[in-house]
Design brief:
The chain is an alpha+beta fold and 310 residues long. It has 9 helices and 4 strands, in the order αββββαααααααα. A hairpin with a 2-residue loop joins strand 2 and strand 3. It is rod-shaped, with a radius of gyration of 38 Å. Homopentamer.
Length: 310
């Protein structure tokens, strides 16, 4: 209750859900960046519930120089405090998204390079499992980037919201006079938001390109597997034809193998004659079947269209 009274806020204003938004309320900026929750006042930055989020390094080593205006996307050292605080939050969010992208990007490229191999007879299931997990992480990252972009775009589309984010302009008369003399804080705020919107747009483009590369690689993998599968099916069909041809002329051996007396078994040359005829006939039938198979399995040549000038 003391915090609500100090910030002139209601309890519902600090009811943080896990979504991304930037709103202005009673000359305060309420920031929700997923798990990062903060309130920016004209002269302070309150980061709430930071324990367990891995923000200690950022709070201790990076945040102070950013609030002092030592570095940043814009020259915010000459602008009020809320510009530097908001830029620090946005920069941290972009860095977090960039780190997540850098984590999955090389892993996905290595897996795709190993899977897209023309000599590959079967896909490694362990690599496919890793690719599936990283694609899921990539989809979640793409969603987070889109939510971050939409939160910034929502502000950029409303001039009144941009004006409300310039809280010092309305609380300090001196700053308001400087703004009216030539320093347009609304334009500076718009440039600040547009800068990080463009960075998020670049991250989104990289994410979409990586997902497109995964889809293209999946198509190549399926084509390679289908090609090898067709080769195996063709070989199986050829062996089946050979077995059929040999079995067809093998009926002659079955007939002579019956315990029936004839004049042929008395001649020793008949055995070699019948055996040779069997193999020769089987070979001719197999060759004929292979020729038939080759004619019907060759790719169809598309018709050639000839254009003539009339």
């Amino acid at each position: 209750m003391e915090l609500y009274h100090e910030l002139s806020l209601q309890a519902r204003d600090l009811r943080f859900q896990h979504f991304t938004s930037i709103t202005a309320r009673n000359n305060n900026i309420i920031i929700r960046m997923e798990a990062l929750k903060a309130v920016v006042t004209p002269n302070s930055l309150l980061v709430l519930d930071f324990r367990g989020l891995g923000l200690e390094r950022w709070l201790v080593l990076e945040l102070a120089p950013q609030l002092n205006g030592d570095h940043g996307a814009l020259a915010t050292h000459s602008l009020p405090f809320e510009f530097r605080a908001l830029e620090a939050i946005l920069q941290h969010r972009v860095n977090t998204l960039q780190a997540r992208l850098n984590e999955v990007h090389p892993v996905i490229l290595d897996i795709l390079e190993s899977l897209v191999d023309p000599k590959l007879l079967s896909a490694d299931r362990s690599k496919l499992h890793i690719l599936l997990q990283n694609r899921k992480n990539l989809s979640e990252l793409e969603t987070d980037i889109k939510v971050f972009k939409d939160s910034l775009l929502k502000i950029l589309d409303e001039e009144e919201m941009i004006e409300e984010l310039c809280v010092t302009k309305w609380t300090d008369p001196r700053v308001f006079e400087e703004s009216s003399l030539g320093i347009d804080h609304a334009e500076e705020m718009e440039l600040l938001l547009e800068n990080y919107f463009m960075q998020a747009e670049d991250l989104g483009n990289t994410t979409r390109e990586l997902k497109g590369l995964i889809d293209d690689s999946e198509s190549v993998i399926f084509i390679n597997l289908d090609s090898h599968r067709n080769v195996m099916m063709r070989l199986n069909l050829q062996l089946t034809m050979g077995t059929f041809s040999l079995s067809l002329f093998g009926l002659m051996g079955v007939a002579f193998g019956m315990n029936l007396e004839s004049t042929f078994e008395e001649d020793p040359k008949v055995f070699w004659l019948v055996t040779g005829f069997m193999f020769l006939g089987s070979g001719l039938i197999w060759r004929r079947l292979l020729s038939f198979l080759g004619r019907h399995l060759e790719p169809t040549v598309p018709p050639q269209w000839v254009w003539r000038r009339v």
